[in-house]
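User: Run a structure prediction on this.
Assistant: Running it now.
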Amino acid sequence: MSDFILTPRELRRYSRQIMLPETGKEGQLKLKMAKVLVIGAGGLGCPVLQYLAAAGVGKIALAEFDTVDEGNLQRQVLYGSDDLGKLKSIIAARRIEQLNCMINTVVINLKIDSRNSLSILRDYDIIVDATDNFRTRYIISDSCVILDKPMVHGAIYKHEGQVAVFNYRGGPTYRCFNPFLPAENGVFSPSETGLLGVLPGITGTIMANEVIKIITGYGEVLSGKILIFSLANYRSGIFTIKANPENRKLTRLYDNY
């Protein structure tokens, strides 16, 4: 795969995107040259990976350490019944390579933590937070501040989804939105509250769109804003996040998260 031109096959494959004036050949070439790290290959990560691969993002890394469980299959659409017990990272990479053989994938089969985060994130242009726990999210956010990387964030709860872009061109960070790590007894997982399978699909697709917007420069990025929507009644709103300059002064990760 040549990094600096679009081949005839790529021109055919991405023709519908290239037809858009906001994308064009220049935007498609930017997608081809982009390097994106998706952290988490669960309910949110699956649609993000699918649509970034389909769009032609040239290098997609996925960081995931878990295995496929039957309870995942209702919402994690990259996996099937034959994948139970297998590593999500391997299966997800194989599926998106089948979806688009013209991209490069990198499998990072480990948990992102304060010891490895900086060394892993530094090699990518955009970081996607598709995780489901707050501690990892703060590590990702702080690493993005130190490395000056944009962080595309998504989260889900029952019928509600939210998407935002943090640390984009000096914009607010995740700590500007959530200054402190919530108490563990106040955070409930989908296994405790329930979850519609379509919700992470919709949320993850919006997250992928934000990544594509950052790469190609089209539209208005959700920087300094958060989109919150409900599938129960289709109510939605975009809310402003106020920047706290103190959150941009990080020079190293904390010892404990």
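Residues 12-248 form a domain with the Rossmann fold fold (CATH 3.40.50.720).
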